[in-house]
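Quick illustration, no need to memorize.
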Amino acid sequence: MTSIFSLSSLLCLPSLYNNPTPYKQVSSFAFVNHRLPLLSLKSTFTSSKPTTCAATPSEGAVSVINFEDFVEKDWSFLDADDANADEVYKQNIGRIISAGKVGEDAKVMISTGSEGFVDQVVDTCSYKQLLVVHDSLFVLACIKEKYDKVKCWQGELIFVPEKWAPFDVVFLYFLPALPFELDQVFGALSKVCSPGARIVISHPKGREKLEQQKSEYPDVVVADLPDKSTLESVATNQPFTLVDFVDQSGFYLAVLEHTK
């Protein structure tokens, strides 16, 4: 069941990742989480012990939430690539964004994007609406702190509510993190995409880097990048057409158009 909750205060915890990150205060915001009941949270994190939080008095009584239940995967490797970006990497990010052909009236969705990628889309594109979908509350909180107008939804791509649809551009920035078959992914996207919508699957460093990430982060990287024949087969069963495909050792890009 989809619900909305607001955070009066949320700290980006060092304990969420293997590589500690400094405390960062996040301003009040609201975003969507389909796993939690309607509530208003106010919390401070001062230790690694189990932490609970409850609503402010004005919100009325709600159930106590134990933050020990929030298990964050380590997504730090995505932003590590952004932080250590060379000129080739920056050019590849530019190619990925350009492949979306984002227009000023476009509704855009980014699935499992790094903060750096979201930064580039915000900085270089004009659009009507931008929705970021991610498994990580940590990542979404940090994005929302910077961009108040960017919509954030925590959960799985195939369950994204249709209220923000139809989407004209969808960036599947890190498809190998999605625990679903391609048919499921594209079946869900076909319901929320406009005619002619562009689906951009990418990896700015290609398969070679993905294999390294897969060995280091097996709980996050659960699949491979699809080859051309696989995408063509999926497109045959779904209302999509493969219009561009690049599969190099240091860069991966696949673009499909929604034909419905």
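Residues 76-258 form a domain with the Rossmann fold fold (CATH 3.40.50.150).
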